[in-house]
Amino acid sequence: MFARSVASSFLRQAARPAAARPLFSAFRAPVAPLTPFQIRLLSESTRSAIDKAIASAPVVLFMKGTPETPQCGFSRAVIQILGMQGVSPDKFAAFNVLEDPELREGIKEYSDWPTIPQLYVDKQFVGGCDILVSMHQNGDLQKLFEESKVLVEAEEGEKKE
Amino acid sequence: MASITEASLREAITQRLGAIHVQVTDMSGGCGQAFTALIVSPQFQDLKALKRHRLVNTALKDEIAAIHAWTAKCQTPQEWEAEGGGSTPAGGADAVGPSMEGTVEGHVEGTRG
């Protein structure tokens, strides 16, 4: 029951105003055609927007959909893992790559990782779904979250019951 | 690139990653857009999970870019044997298979890309 209450409060609170929107809304403005050189490289504006996104919380997830309605099974699996681990909603931010094509492609190049979801903890790339599942199972993820002090305190979780 | 199949991926993984055992499963329901793989290779020795996956991602860069979903389990021969890999249980199927995490009964859902 404890894990469940933490998971549900995690999902509820993660639904609060998405920090992603203002940060990436600039991308929807019309832009000048890209030169071949720019096409090959992650643009400076995308890179700095991703820098800001990764620094916006201790735990940052780039996912398809939102924490309350993931649009992909792999993103859903990671959200469930973060809930089971008891990551504090105050320490967490999610960015929906489906809302922004530039973020969707940019994050793959930024992380040098071809798939989404992608998790960052304290600005360090941790991995995608496969890695998070195995780290969840072998205890490494709990260790990482404890060291990073991003978990909900047990007492706090019980009060919410 | 020619269309990607279980067989073409298996061959690429065997050649490029020196895998001693490869199991590739199409979990797209036939459209060839989503694959899960079990890769057993001595090249994973002494590498952490992130490095193992980066090795695979680099070796299969074009293939992974062309499909919608990709998930892999990367084991060394010792890890694979410790989990019962290589032995064939009475049922006939391998004891250890690819990861089905994030799938619904072995199929992926969600949007493309």
From TrEMBL, chain A:
Statement: the UniProt record of this protein carries the keyword Metal-binding: yes
Keyword Metal-binding: yes
Annotated GO biological process: [2Fe-2S] cluster assembly
GO CC, alphabetical: mitochondrial matrix
Entry keywords, A to Z: 2Fe-2S, Iron, Iron-sulfur, Metal-binding, Redox-active center
Matching InterPro entries: Glutaredoxin, GRX_PICOT-like, Monothiol_GRX-rel, Thioredoxin-like_sf
Pfam families reported for this sequence: Glutaredoxin
All residue ranges annotated as the Glutaredoxin domain in the record: 59-126
GO molecular function, one term: 2 iron, 2 sulfur cluster binding
Top-level taxon of the source organism: Eukaryota
NCBIfam families with a match to the protein in the record: Grx4 family monothiol glutaredoxin (TIGR00365)
Protein name: Monothiol glutaredoxin-5, mitochondrial
Organism placement in taxonomy: Eukaryota, Fungi, Dikarya, Ascomycota, Pezizomycotina
From TrEMBL, chain B:
Pfam families assigned to the protein according to its UniProt record, in alphabetical order: BolA
Domain of life (superkingdom): Eukaryota
Start and end residues of each stretch annotated as Disordered: 78-113
A single BP term in Gene Ontology: positive regulation of transcription by RNA polymerase II
Membrane-spanning residues: none
Compositionally biased intervals (Basic and acidic residues): 104-113
Gene Ontology cellular-component annotations: cytosol; iron-sulfur cluster assembly complex; nucleus
Molecular-function annotations in GO: 2 iron, 2 sulfur cluster binding
UniProt family annotation: Belongs to the BolA/IbaG family.
Listed name of the protein: Predicted protein
Species name: Hypocrea jecorina (strain QM6a) (Trichoderma reesei)
Lineage per the UniProt record: Eukaryota, Fungi, Dikarya, Ascomycota, Pezizomycotina
